[in-house]
């Protein structure tokens, strides 16, 4: 049995455009092209797509995925390995959820002023985060900017890094409060928060409107960022992205 590209897109949630891109780079070649010019996929293609999506969820880039699939000989063994990694990722996300929950509890002790001095152990803020993974993703998407970011990070003391992380955590909680209250992303208070976020990013690199929007989109597309935001407030990643897009259109275009 074969399924058209439209069928596969509907079943998997992957857009037809992405499927065509996977074909163009040789990552997922259809079983055949119909007389109508449409791509058709058989069961082997669906199983391969499942593996691609699993590895994307685990943070692998397309080149890494292609290399893994090229080396793969035993499909069941490969799925067992993906399953093992998914279980490990679930455990890490549980730790991450506990980290964010603990931070929220400590911040709420002084909700009016967001006095970050109430964080009893700042190092606990970072438990469960995989910074190396995001650095690898940044290197793939924005290599020059990632190099600038690393150069800036090299100038920071441990105290500087802890302070910046505390500020970022407090800002995330404030954005979550906007989500909870139904505040539009166009609200001046929300845009003030985004402006602070933009100025913080500019300490490392200076994004234009397109780059700032792309950064916001990563908070939705990347499973780790999306899960971290969701533990603070459902829909927060998309809200942050939309607020950043509004800011970019108004201030950076």
UniProtKB/TrEMBL annotation:
Keyword Ribonucleoprotein recorded: no
SUPFAM superfamilies (UniProt xref): Antibiotic binding domain of TipA-like multidrug resistance regulators, Putative DNA-binding domain
Pfam family, one: MerR_1
Keywords: Activator, DNA-binding, Transcription, Transcription regulation
SMART domains noted in UniProt: HTH_MERR
GO molecular function: DNA binding; DNA-binding transcription factor activity
Domain annotation HTH merR-type: ranges: 2-71
Listed PANTHER family: HTH-TYPE TRANSCRIPTIONAL ACTIVATOR MTA, REDOX-CYCLING DRUG-SENSING TRANSCRIPTIONAL ACTIVATOR SOXR
Listed name of the protein: MerR family transcriptional regulator
Organism, as annotated: Streptomyces inhibens
